[in-house]
Every structure is written in C-alpha cells, then in structure tokens.
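Z., the sequence and structure:
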Amino acid sequence: MPKAYVVAKAISVDLSVELAEATLYADDGPSEVVKEFKGGKLALNVDDIGIAAAEVLTGAVKDSKGVLVSASEDNGKPVAIGYRAKKANGKYRFFWIYKVLFAMPSDNFATKGDNVRPDRV
C-alpha cells in the first residue's frame, strides 16, 4: 500500500481544470452536452517542501553532498494530493486529486535594488 504523509504546510492552492466539451444536436436543437476532463494544472504554494518530498514527487535525486539534482529526464510517479479549504461557516471542504504528476518548480528571485532603509542612513 502506498505511503501517505504531509508534504508541507499549505499557504495557497491554485487549481485550474480544462474540459473538452461537445454538444449533440437533435431535432434542430441541442440535445445533450458532454464534458470530459482534458487536463489541468495544480500550483501549490507551501512553506518548505524538503528534499525527501521533492525526490518522491519530481523524481530528482539527492547527491552525496545532500544537494537535490534534477535532470530534464527526471519524472516522478503519479501521486494523489489532498487538501482542505475552510468555508465561511467554519467547516472544511476536502479535495482529492488523483494521478498528479509534479515537475521541479520555477523560482523567481530579484535583487534588493537601490532602496535604502531610513534606519541605515
């Protein structure tokens, strides 16, 4: 049986789903609408995923110095991801997404620039 564990503490989740839709027409009008799952994207913003979880999710490996090394051919295995969202009434709504494939996340860094803090002048 697969292992289940908390990957990290969630900050935010962004889920977008793409559906393929087709309309069947009969007797000069729409008779049936069919919607099927085409694809989706799940972006998780978490506090710190850690090397062990990143290895499992992305297929990257840790080298002898403890550095996570990812190659373009690395592929993690499909996993199920579950999370919850608090509703206005204080109760939770639970979500489970199956067969999720993860990739190495992108990073965005910027230099401090020429801003000077007033207490350093």
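The first strand starts at residue 10 and ends at 26. DSSP finds one helix and six strands in the chain.

Let me know what you think.
H.
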